[in-house]
Amino acid sequence: MSHRILSASAAAAALLAGRLLAAQTAAPPRLPYAAVHDPQFISVADATFMTDDDRVIGLMSGTTAKAYPAGILSQHGLVEDQSPKGPIAITW
What we know:
- The chain has one domain.
- A hairpin with a 2-residue loop joins strand 2 and strand 3 (64-69).
- The N and C termini lie far apart (63 Å).
- The strands form two sheets. Strands 1-4-5 form a three-stranded mixed β-sheet, with helices on one face. A two-stranded antiparallel ribbon has the order 2-3.
- Helix content is 33%, strand content 28%.
- It is built from two helices and five strands; from the N terminus they run H-E-E-E-H-E-E.
- By secondary structure, it is an alpha+beta fold.
- The chain has helices spanning 2-24, 70-76, and strands at 36-37, 56-61, 64-69, 78-83, 86-91.
């Protein structure tokens, strides 16, 4: 009988120690979306999922033009990309 009590106590102590350790090493809070890093772009002809009424955030730098569809931005919240002048962040 005392063996079972000792085993239960040891199990409870191990569980408590595990919870304390987990509380001390808790992961940082996760954002409600997954940011996009270094996106891949497609040609206008291949963007058949887009319509004339869809909103985009556009960027023109020199001869480089990029469009970030609002529908995609709303799912990810943040796009980290590069422009000819350096890194940029696009958010919606």
